[in-house]
């Protein structure tokens, strides 16, 4: 596959890994005193475990798995609202597969479907749009989930629906944005972070400048990275080099995809359709100012919150208690490793997830569990 | 007055509830669509069977069953009838059994086209003949519109395991070589494309095929083969995990060795799926002792179903039940069983 | 987050709605090309773009790709000449 | 970190698609709901079986299958699991076979309650134990909401027919006596009432039961018994017609001899149905030579399933395949097979 | 069963049969020169074959099976209209089981159901009413089929729907009346009829006086009869006695059920809800004046013809060609026996009925075929 | 045509809608009693009526039933005293 295979070449990896090892040495990072690098994006977390990069990189590098999995940070109360919407008889509820298994307080979408709700997994909001065209007597609700990468697709779909005059298509908007939680983490006095691997696909939409504050205000390096293993390794190397050199810059490893200024069409569509909410709740992180989007009044006809009277009350009012003993917040802020959670592997497994990080395969706990970050392949004594 | 029987009595284009009522309409459906093709022995509702292999000292009967519910019922590379025969034949042969007889039971949705049933039955007959089994008994039920998905087929198979053969998951030993007979995930990918839910099109055919001849050839060349398992639902990853659990061994596979079609790879990248978990319907994993692995592979490659046979990993002494993969990048990761079905990921 | 994969635009299927057929390793899907349509649509045919949830989100810059690869390869070659090579091999094979 | 396995892993109240995906959820469902109860031998997907009766000279294997799709799944007198075991056991025993092993395959609708599955499995186990058969292999599939009706069960049965036994429809001869083991139509009437479509209520239980002990008792007392058939779909009328056709004989039954519950009679009068066509699930018609008929009836009456055994007609030399009934009024009429299912009549 | 078993007593039958034999003798009726008695009602046809009465009565009595099976006389075009109604996505089409298998030109209701139409068999129009209550967003259409016996039930159901203000319940009215076709048959110069067994359950509604014209104007005896075998035999005897005595009267054998003046509540309900159509088509008989009912304008909201714009165009316009070679008309008018139809048992069987008389088990051809009126139990040579 | 069967009214279930429970040989069904309700509804309990498509269509007249049966039995007895008896027997048993 063009633009894929080249960036998975194991031979080229040798050089990068050697360079990483050398720079790690130069910095003086060790297992006991590691350098902490946060990969913000769940896609990067997934790639680290899928290719075993955590075991290939020196012990002096400690990956902190950031909040960049939109499924993991979705508050339970919003899942409950999805279920309520889906259970309306007139509604065809459409969603990406990722959201199906996230537990709400009553049930997951998977369970709601088993109970009879008409829930369909789609690959694209365009497929939801097509369902709306074909089912004029039903209400098709699309579960708009994701960061800036995905937001343009629902904005463009809403614009398309408006252009066609569709009256039975709405989006249940849960889009969130990357910079605010990073700022929140950086403001957290408990947080120890030496640098960031930045989200490549978010950046192809918004460009690299929204991260300027990280370098400028907090003095931390950030390298926007692609998702193939060589991309990731090169980005880690670039972060390490900044640390070694005492630099704090926004660099772009993923320039083949990410224009420094992002994609103007996407940005325009987002601005036209969405506006920032005053604040939005992140599971494990709490309310974060201006971190979520809502549909502008102009497009209220396509807003499931408006059409079905759901609204967004904010965490103070609506948020529901996280399950007892769940340490998701601490894991997400890098304070503890997943395996240090008392629930890990017992009260919380992928079969029966207690916390959100065990649900999505991009969640740090699920990745640890599934890809064995926690479980040694050596025989147990 | 003319009381002669009309030649064709089944003139309906679609199955109605009348065809399930136990009367003449049902009899006509069964006769003209099913038994005229399968030609089971005798008229009784039970087949009466004898075979010399059964009575040989040390022989065992093998008995297995599966229900088939694939949607769409017809897809590139096969149909539900072909799968229903191949699937049950394969469940017999992976245990070293020679398949002898099948039963076939149909749950038909009101409104199902009779012509579709005829095509399904024809393809069952073709596969049964290829596998050398006879479909000896059967049943049909008709359920109301919306109470099934066109047609479900359940087959059961009876075979005989010759004396001295003992293929079983718990026979697998450290050092054994894990071998697959061909590319992975074709069935799962073909069905995903054929279903159309994701609006993806690709020229991928299901691998649906019987594996009896392949196994017999492999066993002849490598009589020490420990176990085989067809990697159906849950894919190769699940088959490996089951074997690792049953044998109490660790298995390590090599990502670079996995045979995959580019289109299957492409579909997995688009949807965020792992081909190790995609279903197969004519692909198995077989474990041979190290000194017979090459012979087994060579023998498999000489058969239609084994042209792309290749070793994908080895059995080790790691933690019992653990399956790991050396990634193409030289790293290593656990290949666990999935929880449920693999869902397309977007984010 | 944000699964994306390079695909090649092979056909414009619906100019009005800005839809085109993309090919990923032989798998085809109709995608929206609004985000990459900055000139005549036909000129997109043969172009590569990053595909995400049915949208061509960003055109792939062949030169930048080549530059990145070159840097990666250069890194490899540079390291080969150093004795640090041994340490790299150990990391690659020893730890799994 | 604690990696110990939790004790109960199946905590869902309802089956979701995840339970059909080939992963851990499926394994947990199968283990906790099915195999923990059935306790099949071995871990393989095929059962491996031996039994001394099979290898005796002259013995034959009997093999049969049926799918069960009854609605409601639980009804007065039984459930789909009980029927699935009794039905296949009965298909074996009416041919003179001793039932040995069953397979059980489940097609489960997304949303089906796990507790319902547990009840069904429990009742299968009870009936299998009563019949002396072992459920040795099985399968589960999960289909989307609306693609099945809670659960469908397909059972296949393997039994052995001892040397010298030859019960078959074509063995029936003029002069033979047709005997039923009990009242007719209870199952059909019970299901009609339980379904609620006609808003009729009646205290009628399905006759669902295994008939193995009854047949063995009858054969011991009347070894000359020619044939038996369980009168399921299509009722006694269809069973008689099939036998008349197969044997090339005429059969005359006597309306006054037909054992019927008053409630079944009442339901038939209300809906314009003929009880001869109502389904049974534990009622058979058996043909004995005239000199052994009384012995057969006496032996049947000594069993639980045969308390109300009675002769209902005789085999004659009339037109081959014709079944007639002497009406309670002394007239005579043909009792043909129905075309489709019997529909309630109003006018 | 009370009021049932007593009238099935085989011992009592001996006397009646002997009396019938004697009177037949007295009349001088023989196989060659039989007395022709028409049982108007399909229920009587059914009972004759079910109990084998045709074989118990003397050969000098020839039963002519009348047009009294509403399923058999339903014109094909009306079946087509049922299918059209049932195939509307919003419609739940409810019907008695009898009508399911009647072939239309395109398909039967059974086939339409297999093709996806929502068709439900009910025991009573009250069950259709209940479905309408439970499915307020669907249109429940009840197929109103039958003679005067059944007409009050749909009239009362429509009144009940009106009282409850149900807006989604309609009746597709195909009710017909008994006297007009009898008159038509009596006016047919080819018809040879010596007397009638009258329909007991129709008469419990309309009383016995609507048949006065038969005795008065046509000089034929008629005895209103019950449906148990003794009822039927006694009625036949009463007809024979009238013939022997040269009387032509309307007699009531079924007085335990049939009041001479019928049931006033039923009659009032019919009159309130229905009015006569100018004419209605009978399969095999053609258009007969004032033989069908339609819903009065007052109840138009409950009239499926009105609500769905179907109307009734009359046979001239709407009726469709009967299948080739079908002799149903001749059989229904008693001109030939079913077995004399060239299609009987070959082109026309219960499995694949060509004509309507082969569909319902009350149809003369089906009764002949199924109960063996046509097929001797003696071995075929 | 017009299948009907005698049933006994055992309970008034919904006086407003004139509904009652009828029993036919142990089988129960709610039926409409408008056609037979010419007095206090409770007085219908225990009464027999002809049931058709969920409606009690006509009350059964016990006296008339007895009269009909008497006539039938009388016919039987009368015939028994006649020599025509023999002919009747033949018809009953000989022809089937
Ligand atoms: S193991 Fe479960 S509860 Fe603990 S942090 Fe991870 S997801 Fe949260
Ligand atoms: S046999 Fe068929 S076509 Fe002929 S008269 Fe009877 S119903 Fe009509
Ligand atoms: Mg199996
Ligand atoms: Mg299988
Ligand atoms: Mg298998
Ligand atoms: Mg069967
Ligand atoms: Mg394992
Ligand atoms: Mg069977
Ligand atoms: Mg059976
Ligand atoms: Mg049977
Ligand atoms: Mg299976
Ligand atoms: Mg027959």
Written account of the structure:
The complex is a heterohexamer, with 2 copies of chain A (381 residues), 2 copies of chain B (347 residues) and 2 copies of chain C (96 residues). Chain A has 381 residues and is an alpha/beta fold. Chain A folds into 3 domains: 5-69 and 189-252, HypD, alpha/beta domain 1 (Rossmann fold); 71-178 and 261-314, 3-Layer(aba) Sandwich (Rossmann fold); 328-368, no CATH class. Chain A has helices spanning 10-27, 42-50, 53-56, 76-86, 109-114, 125-134, 151-164, 179-187, 200-206, 212-218, 229-245, 264-273, 304-307, 315-318, 328-332, 364-371; strands spanning 35-41, 61-68, 91-95, 119-121, 139-146, 169-175, 195-199, 222-225, 250-252, 274-276, 279-282, 286-289, 293-295. In chain A, strands 2-1-7-8-9 form a 5-stranded parallel β-sheet. Chain A is globular. Chain B folds into 2 domains: 17-50 and 57-161, 60s Ribosomal Protein L30, Chain: A, CATH 3.30.1330.10; 169-334, PurM-like C-terminal domain (Phosphoribosyl-aminoimidazole Synthetase, Chain A, domain 2, Alpha-Beta Complex), CATH 3.90.650.10. In chain B, 29% of the residues lie in helices and 24% in strands. A 7-stranded mixed β-sheet of chain B has the order 10-12-8-13-11-14-15. Chain B has a 4-stranded mixed β-sheet with strand order 2-7-5-6. The radius of gyration of chain B is 22 Å and the shape is globular. With 96 residues, chain C is of the alpha+beta class. Chain C has one domain (5-95): SH3 type barrels (Roll), CATH 2.30.30. Chain C has helices spanning 62-80, 85-94, and strands at 5-14, 19-24, 27-32, 48-52, 55-59. In chain C, a hairpin with a 2-residue loop joins strand 4 and strand 5 (55-59). The longest helix of chain C is centred in the last third of the chain and has 19 residues, at 62-80. The mean pLDDT of chain C is 87. Classes of the chains: A alpha/beta (381), B alpha+beta (347), C alpha+beta (96). Chains in contact: A-B, A-C, A-D, B-C, B-D, B-E, D-E, D-F, E-F. At the B-D interface, helix 1, strand 1, strand 2, strand 5 and strand 6 of B face helix 1, strand 1, strand 2, strand 5 and strand 6 of D. The complex binds iron/sulfur cluster (2 copies) and magnesium ion (MG) (10 copies). One iron/sulfur cluster (SF4) binds at residues 326-328, 331, 338, 341, 343-344, 348, 354-355, 357-358, 365 of chain A. Chains B, D: Residues 173-319 form the PurM-like C-terminal domain.
